[in-house]
Amino acid sequence: MRRSLTLYGLTFSLPLLIWQLLFFVFPLVFLVALSFWTVKNFRMQADLDTVNWATMYGRSVFWQAYGTTLAMASAASVLVSILAFPCSYAIAFKLSETARRWAIFLMVIPFFTSYLVRVYSWQIFLSDAGIINVMLGWIGLGPFGLLNTVGATIVGYLTLTYPLVVLLQLFSLVFIDRTLIEAAHNLRCGRLRTVFAVIIPSARVGLVIAALFAFILSFGDFVSPIYLGGGDPTTLSILITDTTKSGQQWPRAAVIALTMIATLLFVAFVAVRFAYKGRSK
Amino acid sequence: MSKIAQGQAGLTRRALLATGVAALAAPMLSRRANAAPVELTMLAWYGHAEPDIVAEFEAENNVKFVPKYYTGGDNMLGLISQSPAGTYDVILSDAEYVQALNEAGYVEELDPNDYAISDYFPEFQQFPGNWSDGKLFSLVTRFGFLGVAYNTDALTEADASTYNVYWEENLKGKVGHFDWHLPNLGQISLLNGNSNPYDIDDAGWQGVQDKTMSLRPQIGGFFDYGGTFSSLNDGQMLAFAGIGDWITGVLEKNGAKVRSVVPEEGGLQWSECFSIGKGSQKAELAKKWIQYITSAKGQAKSAQMAAYPALIPNQKGWEVLQAENPAEAKRQGMTKDAGNVIDMIRAGRIKYRQWPVQQGLEDWNDFWSEYKGA
């Protein structure tokens, strides 16, 4: 069933192919090559040396940062999926058509503002003399150290991913076959059980993909760990900047970046397999 | 429409066209009369090509600066090495990177007779790194001290007059680091009693690492430029290592309750130097700029730079500053009074921030990463 190439088909597929080659494949190949270069007196030299891989993988701080980043991004994607689900569920099943359109619009609005600005504004809430601590002070509590903590970083990750996760979950929830839900009710399945036995399995692809996006965005994020987490603990994104900041060690930064890309590809592969597991073609 | 046409009966189509053409051509004509300004590219820290510093020079010389701002010397070296020669006419560099610029051949040789070096304090006339084999390659233009930055509500100047304050129980989680190993580890080295904080043997280096590690539980965060500003400004951090008046001076001017002090163990000095980029097509104009900014007038401007204040090496610049803005001269310690900043240097209380001499920069950097991850 091989189809012959047609000019018509090429016109539509070629730009995408060229785009992918130019802006994904070539940079990636360059990144791989760069990771074998060496640096002498602040100058990078084309080389074929495994020293950067050996150095980075031999350092405990790298694996520490790797573990931290993996744990924080996983926690963020689980948390955001749990927090977003009631919201997307309500929008999908409880709102009228008009109200749903408004809710979607409201979920898009955060994308109008720079993420950096949104994260900075969290500082006003979380700092020791910030809004939350002042309000807690009214009832005689605190002040609690909220800023420059792992918790604050997670808040930043949620700020980044929450609207997107709600939207992605929503798009899979609205396309669930309503007759399945009606059938569940007819068979005396309770509301909560319907959610877990019918709705979540039916929307599994969307829910998993949403969580995957949350993971991808959090895993590579630099802004929240630095401006809300106070750069402590070191995440992989911070380690990249540290590595480039002193001694022009771009090849070592490339090692970190490639490890991150490999991790994301692996996680994405596993997630997609899980999402489509057992589905008929 | 017709009413308007009637109202302007005297206006012929030809006259209208002529007026229109003249109106369209006017900007061209005036631009011709006023030749377009020459563009001069500057690679510098933020603030050096802003109007408060360059406007006067630009107007006098019909120049327009095109700045490329960097954050950190490594970033600067990266930008130069990735650009063709002649991309940057003027280059501002931290003193410890000047040597690297020379060695890589990124800067032109300067003629010392072109500049008012004799107006400089003697300590700055033969500034380390500016000269190589008796040849001048860059010229120091401003400098500053790094010490203990502190919140004046939380600490007194006496409290902050030792690096040991970072270990105070009540500052747990309230001590911030400017996220760069060189100034922070230099301060710990001073605290450990190393008279030359960057020229330490293996035992001295181990001592610095151990002492630094003991500070880790006190640390509330590692901050970049913006994070340092905001965490000091909102009182999130009450003491800060690795910075000085270049940050707290700006905050203080805006009413924040922060100051910097050079503690009893001594302070570190950062220094910024101007060079002319190798292969610059506008080297003559670049020279003119360096002459301007190192002259008494330019120096007084530089001391009061809006982005971050600094001390200046030109004695006559001090005089201009004292006349123009005595309060700022006093705040920064650039007065004739005893104990001014030159006296501090002469008393041996200040050491240059530099690259480690006996260890590699990499060793210091690797330790810093480990410290952060600890």
Automatic annotation (TrEMBL), chain A:
Question: What Gene3D superfamilies would the database entry show?
Answer: MetI-like
Per the UniProt record, which residue ranges are transmembrane? 12-37, 69-93, 99-117, 129-148, 154-176, 196-219, 253-276
Broad class of the protein's primary localization: membrane
Question: What Gene Ontology terms for biological process does this UniProt record contain?
Answer: transmembrane transport
Q: How does it sit in the membrane?
A: Multi-pass membrane protein
Q: Specify the domain of life of the species encoding this protein.
A: Bacteria
Residue ranges of domain ABC transmembrane type-1 in the record: 66-271
* Location relative to the cell: Cell membrane
This protein's name: Spermidine/putrescine transport system permease protein
TrEMBL record, chain B:
Signal sequence, renumbered to the chain = 1-35
Subcellular location per the Swiss-Prot or TrEMBL entry:
Periplasm
In Gene Ontology terms, what is one molecular function of this protein?
polyamine binding
- Where does the source fall among the domains of life? Bacteria
* Record's keyword terms, sorted: Periplasm, Signal, Transport
Cellular-component GO terms for this entry: periplasmic space
Query: Any keyword NADP?
Result: no
Listed InterPro entries: SBP (IPR006059), Sperm_putr-bd (IPR001188), TAT_signal (IPR006311)
Any single GO BP term = polyamine transport
Q: Is Translocase one of the keywords UniProt gives this record?
A: no
What Pfam families does the record tag this protein with? SBP_bac_8
Checking CDD domains in the record gives: PBP2_PotD_PotF_like (cd13590)
Tell me what this protein is called. Answer: Spermidine/putrescine transport system substrate-binding protein
Q: Which organism is it from?
A: Albidovulum denitrificans
Please spell out the taxonomic lineage of the organism that makes this protein.
Bacteria, Pseudomonadati, Pseudomonadota, Alphaproteobacteria, Rhodobacterales
